[in-house]
Amino acid sequence: MAGKIDMAGFDRAGPLPARVESVIVRVATHAGLQPQASNSCDALSHLAEGIFLHPEDGPRRQLLHHAKGDIGLAHDLIGTVFPRVARRLEEGWNHDRLSFAEVTIAATRLQDAVRNLGARHAPSRGPASLVMIVPAWEQHTLPAFLASEHMRRLGVPVRLLSGVRTDELLALTARAAPDAILVSAGSYRSVARMPDLFTALRRAIPRAVPIVLGGPAMEANFAECHRAGADLATSNLGEALRYCDLDVPVRIHKGTLCDV
Questions:
Q1: What is the pLDDT of residues 145-201, one digit of tens each?
Q2: Residue range(s) in the chain whose domain bears CATH number 3.40.50.280
Q3: Fold assignment, 130-243
């Protein structure tokens, strides 16, 4: 599944720029989807979800083709549309609107799109000041990709470490010398394994670095997350970055540490 995403900071409730509407509607119409009268984020996200759920991958590739040469379009897709598509996938799964296979395929396509567009339009940056960790035992990485790209567009250099063995994870994190570490927990069982990971991270890094725990476990297992041993437990990106005292050149109103 896509995993829960707090939409509080991605966000724009009204219409998206005309260019975004035009491209999504054009691609969706070509794919046989029926556009709605409104061009609100919700209406366009509904169309975008249909593009990623389409039986053929052609519509998604067409959308990426348009965005690869348009930085503004790529920014709006990654920063606003894609997080809403991920939320729709989650809601579709939770309410039996979508099957496991549909959600899995769409989430994989969405993650690939974020990786593809993010790599092409990532701003130049120096050494990573923040490391986001999705432990190897976690299965769903899409929201972490979205959060990482969102932070990069706020000017925060981020390195995402996902699916890496613990020994490699410790070495890579120490080598990155981050100013802060964000860790995503997806369930109670995951939270139960976090104290050992936090202890290992603190031993691997020779200086005191704040560790922030977030993820869907925050909603279902709030108390356990706060007892897991992180310096801060939150799913709010703005709160996490302020706590870590990172220099963010763009103001964050609320932000979100996307859950995985």
A1: 777 777 777 778 888 888 888 999 999 999 888 889 999 887 778 888 899 999 999
A2: 130-243
A3: Rossmann fold (3.40.50)
Position of tokens 């549909």? 102
pTM: 0.66
Q: Max CA-CA distance within the chain?
A: 57
